[in-house]
């Protein structure tokens, strides 16, 4: 991983944000090459999801044809959006502060440092239970420990919720309590909170809830009424515009609304390069379908989204599709699956989430109609009420029910949500592409060659054009070819500095799939050398066919 991070800085893919001021934790800047790479990732996603989508025929595996549209919504939405959606109350992690060095830690990360047996023992002690008096549901604890290790949230069925109130089935004799309460009790008796600070060994405070949404104020006066939030996900933009899109674009269920955009989460422990940042970009799609067909659509999107990463070059065992266990799901959800990648900063056998594909039922549309929903005693979703019997967080009150004018049916569509991160995808493509082999240099001696074997669709430059030497009309001819590529809309690079072998290696290191060299024969026979980054094969082609040949290869020909 260190080598990849070093390459990113050296070649201008990714820089620490505000680096000259010592950096700003959790924020990253993309340099010239990183900007092209990430733009290509975003474009590939949007192209494959929206631009190239054929709404007249069902793609392979899809139950029927469907429509896809894009949307771009505000980063700061009405504060009520986040109250109704549940983010305001629940988008929180439990955190602890070190009393000595003042650093913040996610309680589950710190607790995760305990061995599982210690964890169970400390809970047992915290609950004042003698041996055998409390039977911990060992399996659910183990499952929870696995979640922690994977850095996952506790309520995977609800992508939006980090749910400290999820009840761990901790006992067999009716002693059930929310996880947050369990932590608090453990802390009070010196159980979990006795964990030392991982940074300095100091004492930690009790776990406290910490909302991950960045707050700001709209308008001049900083009152509670003017308090607003930077969006922690793009998805709510699609839900609150569901009716607008239906009414304005004549889409019919089933259809999807796709959006790419920045999201912000005040992550307590940003880490692992760009993997967990405080500002990041999401590529999310909300697919609205008939409740009776939602299982089929879920299966379709789950498989299709996994294939997307494979098609773009992550072909081996580093990529997995992990279905959530039934007990990890919200009760209204028939499934959630994560596309995960074995990032090099993780322990062997561990995977980090690239994308979650969730069946969300009608949870989101209903919340924005009726108000914030919670589960009742029977596990049914009901509007949460305050002491006076009014909705605790009101919805919009608007009718978001869909009317199918062919079947004359009225219903609230179910939603399938494939939610991907552009930065995590970019990082995974970079990690997968990074490769070092040995190749002879100009003098024939074997040298380590660093290659980014990026899929051509993702490579920052598709082609680099070189004159072999800086005379005999070669730079002029190479310049012509370079412009030919640019006119065809192909990302190209021109380089006439240094030995040819060094120029090839510079392009290999940034993932350029093809290099074109103008040499002594070009003037006489009109051909140039086309070199392939991965096979190292060199062929001669007519100079005036370069743009056509690169376009053909890009199209997979
Ligand atoms: P995690 O459990 O890793 O915090 P999440 O399950 O909360 O992620 P979602 O709310 O499902 O994430 O967001 C969808 C996608 O957005 C994730 O799969 C990931 O690619 C991206 N994402 C979420 N949080 C971050 C972050 N802090 N930095 C970079 N990308 C992120």
**Structural class category:** alpha+beta
Task: Write down the overall mean pLDDT.
Answer: 84
Structural domain count? 3
Q: What's the CATH architecture name of the largest domain? A: 2-Layer Sandwich
CATH superfamily of the largest domain: Bira Bifunctional Protein, Domain 2
Strand order of the largest sheet: 3-11-12-20-15-14-13
> Level of helix content?
25-40%
What does the model show?
By secondary structure, this protein is of the alpha+beta class. It has three domains: 32-75 and 214-429, 2-Layer Sandwich (BirA Bifunctional Protein, domain 2); 95-208, no CATH class; 461-554, Anticodon-binding domain (Rossmann fold), CATH 3.40.50. Helix content is 31%, strand content 24%. The protein contains 17 helices and 27 strands. The strands form nine sheets. A seven-stranded mixed β-sheet has the order 3-11-12-20-15-14-13. The protein has a five-stranded mixed β-sheet with strand order 24-23-25-26-27, with helices on both faces. The protein has a three-stranded antiparallel β-sheet with strand order 5-4-8. Strand 26 (527-532) and strand 27 form a beta hairpin. Mean pLDDT is 84; it is low at 112-120, 129-176 and 189-194. The structure holds adenosine-5'-triphosphate. Adenosine-5'-triphosphate is lined by residues 151-153, 159, 233, 265, 267, 276-277, 280, 282, 353-356, 419-421, 423-424.
């Amino acid at each position: 991983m260190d080598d990849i991070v070093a390459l990113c800085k050296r070649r201008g893919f990714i820089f620490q944000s505000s680096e000259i001021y010592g950096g700003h934790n959790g924020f990253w800047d993309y340099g010239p090459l990183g900007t092209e790479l990430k733009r290509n990732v975003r474009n590939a996603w949007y192209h494959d999801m929206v631009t190239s989508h054929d709404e007249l025929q069902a793609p392979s595996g899809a139950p029927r044809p469907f429509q896809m549209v894009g949307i771009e919504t505000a980063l700061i939405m009405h504060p009520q959006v986040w109250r109704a959606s549940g983010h305001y109350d629940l988008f929180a992690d439990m955190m602890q502060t070190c009393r000595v060095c003042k650093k913040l830690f996610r309680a589950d990360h710190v607790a995760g440092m305990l061995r599982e047996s210690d964890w169970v023992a400390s809970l047992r002690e915290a609950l004042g239970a003698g041996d055998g008096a409390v039977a911990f549901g060992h399996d659910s604890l183990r499952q929870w420990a696995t979640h922690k290790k994977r850095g996952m949230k506790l309520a995977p069925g609800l992508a939006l919720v980090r749910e400290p109130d999820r009840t761990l089935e901790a006992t067999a004799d009716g002693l059930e309590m929310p996880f947050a309460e369990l932590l608090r009790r453990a802390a009070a008796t010196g159980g979990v909170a006795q964990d030392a600070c991982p940074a300095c060994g100091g004492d930690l405070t009790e776990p406290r809830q910490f909302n991950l949404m960045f707050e700001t104020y709209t308008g001049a006066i900083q009152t509670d009424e003017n308090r607003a939030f930077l969006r922690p996900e793009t998805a709510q933009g699609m839900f609150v515009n569901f009716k607008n899109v239906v009414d304005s674009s004549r889409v019919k269920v089933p259809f999807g609304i796709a959006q790419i955009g920045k999201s912000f989460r005040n992550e307590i422990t940003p880490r692992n390069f760009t993997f967990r940042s405080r500002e990041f970009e999401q590529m999310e799609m909300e697919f609205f379908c008939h409740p009776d067909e939602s299982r089929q659509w879920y299966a379709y999107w789950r498989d299709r989204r996994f294939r997307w990463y494979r098609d773009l070059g992550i072909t081996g065992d580093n990529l997995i599709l992990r279905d959530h266990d039934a007990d990890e799901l919200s009760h209204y959800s028939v499934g959630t699956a994560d596309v995960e990648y074995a990032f090099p900063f993780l322990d062997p056998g561990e995977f980090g989430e690239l994308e979650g594909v969730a069946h969300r039922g009608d949870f989101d549309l209903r919340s924005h109609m009726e108000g914030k929903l919670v589960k009742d005693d029977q596990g049914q979703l009901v509007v949460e009420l305050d002491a006076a019997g009014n909705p605790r967080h009101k919805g919009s009150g608007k009718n978001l029910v869909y009317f199918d004018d062919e079947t004359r049916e009225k219903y609230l569509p179910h939603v399938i949500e494939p939610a991907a991160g552009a930065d995590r995808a970019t990082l995974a493509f970079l990690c997968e592409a990074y490769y070092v082999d040995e190749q002879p240099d100009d003098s024939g001696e074997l040298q380590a060659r660093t290659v980014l074997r990026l899929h051509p669709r993702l490579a920052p430059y598709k082609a680099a054009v070189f004159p072999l030497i800086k005379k005999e009309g070669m730079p002029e001819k190479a310049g012509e070819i370079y412009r030919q590529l640019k006119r065809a809309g192909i990302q190209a690079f021109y380089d006439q500095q240094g030995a040819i072998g060094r120029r090839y290696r510079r392009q290999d290191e940034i993932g350029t799939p093809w290099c074109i060299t103008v040499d002594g024969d070009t003037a006489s026979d009109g051909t140039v050398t086309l070199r392939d980054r991965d096979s190292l094969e060199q062929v001669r082609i007519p100079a005036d066919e370069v743009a056509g040949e690169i376009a053909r290869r890009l199209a997979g020909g």
